[in-house]
């Protein structure tokens, strides 16, 4: 079997068991089953916490675009006049003449635990009974992009909560990797790529963050760096209360393809050389950009000190051959691969991620590649 393959696709989802059935009777489809949180379970099997972006089959009804929203009484449809929106991205629409920009989503995301075998080759079980759906007002438009790290005896999972109320990062915790308790908001601002280190630094939890804002400021002309979204770090005494580090983390560098933005991917894991992590970089092209995966090595005692940065030759790139048989389901015009976690498998790492914002991809990479 190849070392690069899709493990879970949109057609693998049984929408009859979707949480949206509590309120949405109209036909829906899976826009994407992708960007999974990833962890090794106590049994030795692996867990994919798959983001299911579920959309109405016909999002535009007569003169309205419709968005799905969670409420405590079930799911409802919000209507927006097509004359009052711009819709140049299949994943979202924007309300016209609004400053700041206001968006609506064409899908609502929930999380589906998919258990695969220890080598990441076969699906063992799909745990619909343990699916994670919106459960608070700060995630009423979806719970997105899980990232899982095992620290000590617990699995810590960050998610993005999407709502008109706020766009935040929330934390879940589990003792067995499958049953998660919501602990609440940990970052009260938009932060797409928070993921904990797999172990503590000087007795404290450490995490990668990637805060977003309305504007960014330019570096001097002679600086090697480019402004824009970048990887920062934060520390916490308990996993819930976070203070950003004063020192910067990883930034986009001139002379590379990752000039639009960068952000975290896998949880940093401790190796004899230091903390190894895989992250994504984006080349500006079209509305979405080209996403590739790179890697870095951080000092074990001071992770803000970057020992090595492989930001020129990609570690992982999008592979159109993987999605050839589901190309009719694709909606993004540019190549996207998005690493979301890794697991130790002896002489190699099993790396999970999303391919084309459509399906879950597994890649096996020899450990010697990181030396």
TrEMBL record:
It holds the Pfam family Glyco_hydro_130. InterPro entries: Glyco_hydro_beta-prop_sf, Mannoside_phosphorylase. Keywords: Glycosidase, Glycosyltransferase, Hydrolase, Transferase. GO terms for molecular function: glycosyltransferase activity; hydrolase activity, acting on glycosyl bonds. It comes from the Bacteria. Coiled coil: none annotated. Belongs to the glycosyl hydrolase 130 family. This is Glycosidase.
